[in-house]
Structures are given as structure tokens and as C-alpha cells.
């Protein structure tokens, strides 16, 4: 099925893009529904039929100011999120051989931390949270080595928020990443 943007619909030209998920069989064109952009939303953005709107510089400045404010106060949110993550991991520790639900909960919290930390400029926390999320995302249980690796992530994250290590964490961040690399080596050893 061919997808057309609003502009292409207005001019009658088709796009070469297709609506085919990469991992599934394509559906017949008769099952594709085109949902046009809401004209009211276009109008709010300064557009009109056949012409795209634009977000005002004032609206962008307000949004950037709001993000900056959240970033300035993020460390308290980050500390709370990491404490929640550690609390959730207690359920995994209690029964590591059958912890699918608890692991999924920890993975989702790590994903939330990843997103917020990135927005607020805590790159080290973002990278460690992403690593933990990817490690846990499809697991239903953890063995002793996997537990140690996950706990190494939690230790690094706890240090980042305890010492307010923004950005890449500087020299301390480098040392924390080295400790995580050592934990990964232990995980992969037979």
C-alpha cells in the first residue's frame, strides 16, 4: 500500500514509501486506512490545506525552558527512580529462577530512567540504564552471573545519582564504566 503525505494528496503525486512492516507479510491494500492530519491541528500550527504549519519560535523556547527546568531538578527524580529500581530488583533477588514479571518491571523502570536521563543530560546514567534494559528485556530468569551483572548496573546507577554525575561522569564515570566492563567479562566467562 502506498502512503501519501498531506502535500502529496494535495498535488496528486505518490510517495515511493510503502506501509510494510519489515518483519511481517504485507497486507492487501484494501485493509489500509489513511487517516489524514486533523485540520484543526494544522491550523494551530499556522498551516492550511495544502501547506504545512510551523511551530512558533516562542512555543519552542517555552518547551526548551521547561526541559531545562526539569534537567536542573532531575537529580532528585533520578535518585527516586534509581531507589525504585533497586526496590523492584528485590523481587528478582527473592526468586531469580522464576522472576519474569519482576524482571520485566525492572527493565521497564530502567527504560524510563534511560529516557528521562537522556533528556536531562545525564549521559552516563542513560547508557547504563539502556544497558540494563537491553540485558533484562527478554529474560525470564537470572542465574548467579546474570544477577551479578544486573547488580553491577544498579551499583553504577546508584553512584551516578549519589554523586550527581551529569554528562559522561568525568573521571569517576570512566571508572564506573570500567567496573561495568569487568562485570561483563565475568558474565561472559564460562
User: What is the strand content?
Assistant: under 5%
Distance between the termini: 49 Å
**C-alpha geometry:** extended
The radius of gyration is 23 Å
Overall average residue pLDDT? 82
Q: Write down the secondary-structure element order.
A: HHHHHHHH
Largest sheet: none
Number of DSSP strand runs: 0
Query: Total helix count?
Result: 8
- Structural classification: mainly alpha
Helix content: 55-70%
Which residues form runs of ≥5 with pLDDT under 50?
A: 14-28
Structural overview:
The protein has helices spanning 6-11, 39-44, 57-72, 74-94, 100-119, 123-136, 144-162, 170-188. It is mainly α. α4 packs antiparallel against α5 (100-119), α6 packs antiparallel against α7 and α7 (144-162) packs antiparallel against α8 (170-188). The longest helix has 21 residues, at 74-94. Mean pLDDT is 82; it is low at 14-28.
Q: How does the SSE layout of this entry go?
A:
Blueprint lengths: L5 H6 L27 H6 L12 H16 L1 H21 L5 H20 L3 H14 L7 H19 L7 H19 L2
